[in-house]
């Protein structure tokens, strides 16, 4: 999953980005409303964390512009303001959730996980596809109850496919959602990660749909010999 953090406090921005990266997300950062609005317009984020009190363009105006252009990515607003009217204004502009500063990082991470689950139709932190279970809270993966150790990129790939199981996902889409904007992207590496995942999981839940991409389908699950 790929996220954007729009926060002008550079220390807080870095803290949020670091926490999200450690939780297994690809993360981009912006430090004013103008830059944040541009990235939200041009990059396919799975969720955005947006401060309301931004320089150049305020957060409510940025969010209003995104929604007016039909951008549907989930957005969590950050605000240091205590007035309930500011939160109402954020929700009316199209926010999905909010966190008031100062906040505990674990709360923000939990809200991000919940937002991503809801956006993809999952009710709990544990997502299952046949014998494969992925716990978005702990970042752990297990097959038939046995833990599977994955690299950060393998985990991101499996997480994205499991959040979107039952839908064909192209290599291009995976490339856009697995890496931040500074990463040297090569869609051919997706095939390498898919191969590693299949080997580590030991079950055929990842189906290749020739010419289109990949499909996570538990109904075809078979244990490899």
Automatic annotation (TrEMBL):
It comes from Microvirga guangxiensis. GO terms for cellular component: cytosol; protein-DNA complex. The modification 4-aspartylphosphate is found at residue 51. GO terms for molecular function: phosphorelay response regulator activity; transcription cis-regulatory region binding. This is Two-component system, OmpR family, response regulator. The keyword DNA-binding applies. CDD domains: REC_OmpR_EcPhoP-like, trans_reg_C. Residues 2-116 form the Response regulatory domain. InterPro entries: CheY-like_superfamily, OmpR/PhoB-type_DNA-bd, Sig_transdc_resp-reg_C-effctor, Sig_transdc_resp-reg_receiver, WalR-like, WH-like_DNA-bd_sf. GO terms for biological process: regulation of DNA-templated transcription. PROSITE patterns: OMPR_PHOB, RESPONSE_REGULATORY. SMART domains: REC, Trans_reg_C. It comes from the Bacteria. Signal peptide: none annotated. Residues 124-218 form the OmpR/PhoB-type domain. Keywords: DNA-binding, Phosphoprotein, Transcription, Transcription regulation, Two-component regulatory system.
